[in-house]
Specification:
Elements (H helix, E strand, L loop, with lengths): L1 E8 H19 L5 E6 L2 H17 L5 E4 L8 H4 L18 E9 L3 H11 L6 E9 L11 E5 L7 E5 L1 H4 L3 E7 L1
Parallel strand pairs: 2-3, 2-4, 4-5, 5-6
Antiparallel strand pairs: 1-8, 7-8
């Protein structure tokens, strides 16, 4: 039997994105040379929201792109014989940029590794940082978030589901537990 707990609601998510936007701008002393790249699917929506928050704070449009990591996954042949490939659009040069990868949940680290591999195919960024809405632990690779919305202790069998109004009709993060 499964049970679900809401761990973040819409106002929590908005507050987190405001905080992370300020943290990014503080660390980088502004938005110069920054670019955001969201990982399909929900990372793309989070990156666009961060772009908007930074615009509100700094009055600057940070270049924003999106990356699909499906073919960079180390297990893609095991998950589907016909993987669904989504858009990868990076409409700016990554060379010399401070790229901030954006994803919804950090778990094993394998998605982030795949995203970095995909990003490097576009050029040589000056640096790559990571924003995640939720860090749930259980890393299999030495990857950590530079900017983390919330740390949530989970069991490997549990699921963290991020819902965003752009694709799910509402904003919230749910922890699905085995009872």
């Amino acid at each position: 039997m499964k049970s679900s707990d809401t761990i973040l609601d819409a106002s929590d998510i908005d507050r987190i994105l405001v905080r992370i936007s300020h943290e990014i701008l503080e660390v980088h002393k502004g938005a110069e040379s920054l670019a955001l790249v969201g990982i399909q699917t929900r990372g793309v929506h989070l990156a666009r929201r961060l772009q908007e928050k930074i615009r509100e704070i700094e009055g600057v449009d940070v270049p924003t792109g999106q990356v699909d990591i499906t073919l960079y996954r180390d297990d893609w042949t095991r998950i589907s014989t016909n993987p669904v490939i989504q858009a990868t659009e990076i409409p700016f040069s990554v060379d010399g940029k401070k790229i901030i990868l954006v994803d919804d949940v950090l778990f094993t680290g394998r998605t982030i590794r795949s995203a970095m591999d995909a990003l490097i195919d576009f050029g040589r960024p000056d640096r790559i940082e990571l924003v995640v809405l939720v860090d749930r632990g259980h890393r299999e690779l030495p990857i950590q978030g530079n900017y983390v919305g919330k740390f949530v202790e989970t069991r490997r069998s549990e699921m963290v589901n991020v819902m965003m109004k752009e694709c799910d009709g509402e904003d919230k993060v749910i922890l699905d537990k085995e009872s």
